[in-house]
Specification:
This protein has 79 residues and is mainly beta. It has 1 helix and 3 strands. Strand 1 and strand 2 form a beta hairpin.
Length: 79
């Protein structure tokens, strides 16, 4: 995180075969400084990156949302 000028909680763009955004958080102390990124399965899927793949990270500024609309998936029938 230091190499990218990131503080814990800041937003990064993660690019594998596709780009997505994530919040940067510190790894466990014993895992730091190894030049690796830890991502959960959802983030890996969104970036289309697998275990052992290389990804690009870029610090980005993400504006605060003024409003959010939540909608059901599908046609809305049957819950």
């Amino acid at each position: 995180m230091t190499a990218l000028g990131l503080q814990s909680g800041e937003t990064v763009q993660v690019t594998g075969r596709r780009s997505t955004v994530a919040k940067a958080l510190l790894a466990y102390a014993e895992d730091r400084g190894q030049g690796q990124v830890q991502m959960d399965g959802i983030l890996r899927e969104n970036a289309q990156a697998g275990l052992g793949d290389r990804v690009q990270l870029e610090k980005i500024v993400c504006p605060v949302a003024r409003s959010v609309v939540i909608q059901p998936l599908g046609d809305g029938a049957g819950g």
